[in-house]
Structure formats: structure tokens, C-alpha cells
Amino acid sequence: MKTIEVPIEGKNREWSEAILLREIRAWHRQGRPLYSHYMRQHFQELLAAGIRYFGSWGKAVEAAGLSYAEVRRYQRWSKKSIVERIRLLHAQGADLSFRALMLSPYAPMVYAAIRPVYFGSWRNALLAAGLAPADIYRYRSWKEADILREIRRLHAEGEDLSSKYMDERANSLIATARRRFGSWGAAVERAGLDYAKIRKRKRWTEAEILDQIRALGEQGVSLTSTEVRNREPSLFAAACKRRFFGSWRQAVESAIGKVGKQAGTQGRGQVEAV
């Protein structure tokens, strides 16, 4: 069979159809893009050999048993489809670091994302998908012990650790935990927490917190932080979150203050009991 000598990094390499097709398949197995523009930049010699033997690069790829239509799919990416795929991969617990994806079958998406007509950089693509690039790289290198420690810390601070809430926040911790432990629930259990209870945990709104504080006051329950922390831990944790009131005292004062305008000194007495 006729061979072609093609210079590669200063050396001559003899190509044959068998070598060419084997090289294309190996390139594909490594998860590298095979579309012509990428090959022209990264392996021009292979591209030239493919065209020489088969008349076009697309035919060479097809001869290697691959679908060139699938290889060229990067051309069909849009900002919307890139963002949707990033979110889907995140929900599946995929490693969304640039390096990891460039070595995966999703490299064409990354190349499309960093083009100036789309996002210009992978960081901007992550931001567009609602993810925090710092978290992507922060948690990626964490060991199991680090993940479990972080889960315990969040729980101690009263954070909602249900998978639904963590996914909604696009928290990369949950993606990393899924890779390390198989599922978010398994990671939470390994941290020594009861995930069944966490899944049933009530999700509070500011209005519900205020209503519950007033209801406890009307029932004659002491509204001290110690009493409520033991009696209503979910309420206490939610009220102390920064996005609500930041502290139990502020939550009680907000609730009783509004009641106090309607019920006179009753509200003020409850504030003093905190």
C-alpha cells in the first residue's frame, strides 16, 4: 500500500490508511475534538493525510467508523444550549473544571463556549450558567474528609442540606460529593447526619418565620434562644440565617414589634424575654 511521508515536529512519518484510521480512533478515544478546524490547529499532519487518502477529512473520519455529523456538532452550539448542558452536567455531578472537560467528550462544547461570539472564556460560561467558578475549583481538589467537614459546618450553621436546595443554589459541593460518595444523601449520612430528616425539613420564608414566632408567643412559650433552639431547631436556624434576620433576637424583635403595634405591651414583654 502506498505511504505518505508527512513531517511531524521535524521528523518524517510514514502514513498508511491503517495508521491513519488507527490514529483517528485513538484521538477519539482520548476524548479530543475531531472537527477540521481543531485538527488544523493541533494535528495538521493527520488532517492532511486524511484528505490525501479519502478526499476530505469528513470521509476519513467516517472511514474510521465515526459519525462526522456528530463530530461537527460543536457548530450547532448556542449560548442557550451551552448553558443548559453545563447545568445538566453540574446536576449529574460532573467535574466542570476546564482541564477535566477538555479531556472529555464535551471538549467541543468548551471550545464553542470560549469563542468570542459566545462567552469568550470558560469562566464566563460558568457564570452564565449560574455557577461560581471559585467553587468549581475550590471543591474539585477536596478529599472525602474535607467534604464531610464542610457538610457538618453547613449543618451547624443551619443551612438546608436537601439535594433540591443545594442543586437550586448551584453549589459545587454537591457535585463533588456525588463524585466521591455516589450520591448526596450518602455523603450526608457519612457526615453523621440523618438525611431522611433533612429531606423532610421545612423550607421557611420570612413571613412564615414571623408567624411562627408570634404563634409561639401566643402559646406562652418562652422566646429565649435556648428554649426555641431546643423546641423548634428548624425555626431557630432559619431565623438566624443572614438572608432572613441574621440573629434570633432580631427575628423576635421583628415579629413582636409588628405584633406590639396591635397588641400593646404583650409584644414588648416577649422581646425582653429573649
TrEMBL record:
Pfam families: HNH_repeat. InterPro entries: HNH_repeat (IPR041025). This is Uncharacterized protein. It comes from the Bacteria.
